[in-house]
Write a structure and sequence with these properties.
- The protein is an alpha/beta fold and about 270 residues long.
- It has 10 helices and 13 strands.
- Strands 6-5-7-13-8 form a 5-stranded mixed sheet, sandwiched between helices. Strands 1-2 form a two-stranded antiparallel sheet. Strands 3-4 form a two-stranded antiparallel ribbon.
- Helix 5 links the parallel strand 5 and strand 6.
- The radius of gyration is 23 Å and the shape is globular.
Length: about 270
């Protein structure tokens, strides 16, 4: 039995078809109307017709021409993002998916590997994107490092899996901020101490963080798992924070993962 789910949008009361939306997505992906038409197996005039239908419904331009090709306008990006989100929600073949940050990546990978959940996936990103994945029903569970993000996710089930301390490497008033972990909690500590500091840059790279020569915060467990020794200017327990799992529904896989995460994070 072949079952498919196809998405269409209603914009200002006008239905925009799947094929028209595919044209918009193809232009965003290819960066060129000619390349997009070739990818879809249609002529450029037909692609123009599809895009014009979307613009007629939206009442605004969704594409703009640049010296390098074509790109979506802000309104076009909004439409394309919604279509992508809908596609993920209606996917019939998505396996059990867990989101986490590099802080808990090793822990999550170890648990998922040991449980041997068929078709399981792990998405590594920051807390904000992990919550977005849950909201768009693209993930079943997200492991959140920064407890302040939980105020934005109070509609979901939550369960603490443990606690982590943070290390402060003090190289002066200039800080480089790591994009992962409970950074907002850490900088709130500096504010509570009335310490003068400046955040001069942000980084996704651990090696850039460690080699920056600037002051920074990093979760203690991340250093332990990577066998990195750093002297902290404060007791890591002062900056201890909860690591929390959020999820839409408590099914068998969620329960198994939760149990294993708590056991390994003791």
């Amino acid at each position: 039995m072949d079952i498919q789910v196809q998405n269409s949008l209603v914009i200002n009361g006008t239905t925009v078809t799947v094929r028209q939306l595919e044209a918009l997505a193809a232009v965003r992906s290819e960066g060129s109307q000619t390349a997009a038409a070739r990818r879809l197996g249609i002529s450029v005039p037909v692609l123009h017709k599809y895009v014009s239908a979307i613009e007629s419904a939206a009442g605004v331009h969704v594409l703009e021409t640049t010296p390098a090709g074509s790109r979506l306008t802000r309104e076009g990006e909004i439409i394309a993002d919604m279509v992508e989100s809908m596609s993920h929600r209606t996917a019939l073949d998505r396996g059990f998916t867990v989101c986490c940050s590099p802080v808990t990546e090793d822990l999550v990978m170890s648990v998922i590997s040991s449980l041997k959940i068929p078709g399981a996936h792990i998405v590594v990103s920051d807390d904000e994107y992990s919550i977005r994945m849950i909201r768009e029903d693209r993930a079943d569970m997200a492991i959140i490092d920064d407890p302040l993000y939980l105020f934005d996710a109070d509609e979901y089930e939550m369960d603490e899996i443990g606690y982590m301390g943070m290390v402060l490497v003090d190289n002066g008033p200039e800080f480089i901020r790591y994009r992962y972990g409970a950074q907002r909690v850490a900088f709130m500590f500096l504010d509570s101490e009335d310490r003068q500091y400046t955040i001069v840059s942000d980084t996704f790279s651990l090696s850039e963080l460690l080699g920056s020569g600037k002051s920074f915060f990093i979760d203690e467990q991340m250093l332990i798992r990577k066998n990195i020794r750093l002297k902290s200017a404060v007791d890591p327990n002062i900056l201890k924070h909860a690591v929390t799992a959020i999820y839409r529904r408590d099914d068998r896989n969620v329960a198994r993962v939760m149990k294993a995460l708590k056991q390994r994070n003791k």
